[in-house]
Amino acid sequence: MATKTDKEGRELVEIRYEMGIPGTFAKGPIMGYFLEKLKEKELWGTRCGKCNNVIFPPRVLCPKCMVDMAEWVKMEDFAHIVTFDVVHFPTINPLTGEMRPVPYTSLFMVFPNGAGFFHFGIEHDPEKIKPGKKVVPVWADKREGRPADLLGWVLAEE
Amino acid sequence: MKKTRNVAIAGVGQTKHRGHREDVNLAELVSEAVEEVLADSMVDLSDIDAIVHGNMELFEGVHQPDMWHVIADGGYGKAGYRITTGGTTGTTLVSAADHLVASGMHDLVLAIGFEKQEEGMTTTGITNMSCPLWDREVQTGAITGTTGVIMMNKFGQKAEEAAAELRVLMATNARKNFKAHLRLDITRKDVLDSRVLAWPLRLLHMCPESNGACAMLFASEEMAKKLPQKKVWMHDHVTIHRQEFFDFAHLEDLNTHGEAARIIYTRNGIVNPIKQIGVFEMYDPSSWWALDWLGKFLFMENGEQIDMVLNGDFAIDGKFPVNPSGGVVSTNPIGATAIIRVAEAALQIRGDADDHQVPRDINLALASGFGGTFWTVLHLLGKDKPNH
């Protein structure tokens, strides 16, 4: 228990605590396949047979057409930046409970087949990151079929 | 919008919104807004039929807070439900209360939005909404400069000046509103010199984390006739969202504000919003978003709103007053933030906004809510009864 007083000197009482919430998430067959393929450094999406849009990461249904996805699509091993965030405000990663080191970069990208997605950028200098620039994935050495297998995206050498 | 019967706003109540409220717990904070709305509408708790109650439960980590809050809102034994739709929670509460009255189910419905952001961890709560199998790992919460990047690329330095000027305007307005949380005396330079959160978004562009509550009372036309407070009428509202399927690769897909505005204007005969609408209480989580969104709500495709900001057209005495309350960048108790927009719009129509009252008669007012999954709720209020 920590005790504070307000401006008039009245005692205020707060209870401080830290919560730990262990969690397990079922992958399901679609995300299960996607995450398994990360071990082989492959990125997969799914294509809607009606509107022809590719969704990445994959989903079992197209949310706009509400039909089953027609096929798996292997994504190219590069993408282009649409926009980005270099974040200097530390936040907790809710999956680990650990503070993210700052700065970190979120890239909003598009694959050549038109699928938009976001993920980490390795570059933190906003002068170097520009919409339209080509980026390639950086993989963890040890991959376990988890989101953290893909470390982020780095500017491709021109 | 087709309605079975008209709905009036019969009263408004708000706490003073502050950065610290360790002197009260959540329920006690809510009770302050409830006491004020009862006084404003001259209604007794026992007269209320149903209560809709909302906040972002993950932020404080208190689930089903409505159970605890019956000691604050008199909900014991009454009808009602709990609403959690992110940033739009407050405007969704208003939509729900409107539906409950318009349908004929209830005559008097109390809507309460609140948040005590000094408790819990807001950004962790926000990031917990993302899919845990992928997006949660890279979710940055509400701290994003992406709109700023896009606007800087499209309109250059002038956009940065206008975003800063818009923040200065909100501070000027907030200083006239004693209930606002941040009542800052700042210049454009102060904004541009404040520290970078996510370039080009700076600390002073961004909304604060506030503690506060707002309550509104909604009445059927028949019931409203019996109540003494000046009436404000619910004209129309619309909800548009993308849930998790928003796509930054297709920017046109993100314009839920424009889509909502088009529906509201078309259904209500609004051909010139700047002339026909007297005030707009817009949900502005950051000044960069505000700068972009004014263009979306007003259908300005070539950045005309940037010059309007620099000309002072959105000031309280300007051509199209925006956020005379000081907006979300000044006050942000999230579950209350969007209902405050509607409450402030109603006070403007009544002429009861005290020092931040727009100095002219207002017949129509617009109020928006926004949530992170490109979720827009837009309300149109009027001084006169709508023709349904």
Plain-language structure description:
The complex is a heterodimer of chains A (158) and B (388). Chain A has one helix spanning 28-38, and strands spanning 2-5, 11-14, 44-48, 54-55, 69-74, 79-87, 104-110, 116-121, 134-139, 150-155. Chain A is built from 1 helix and 10 strands. Chain A has one domain (28-155). In chain A, strand 3 (44-48) and strand 4 form a beta hairpin. In chain A, the strands form 3 sheets. Chain A has a 5-stranded antiparallel β-sheet, with no helix packed on it. Chain B has 388 residues and is an alpha/beta fold. Chain B folds into 2 domains: 7-123 and 210-224, Thiolase/Chalcone synthase (Peroxisomal Thiolase, Chain A, domain 1, 3-Layer(aba) Sandwich); 137-208 and 234-382, Peroxisomal Thiolase, Chain A, domain 1 (3-Layer(aba) Sandwich). Chain B is built from 15 helices and 11 strands. Classes of the chains: A mainly beta (158), B alpha/beta (388).
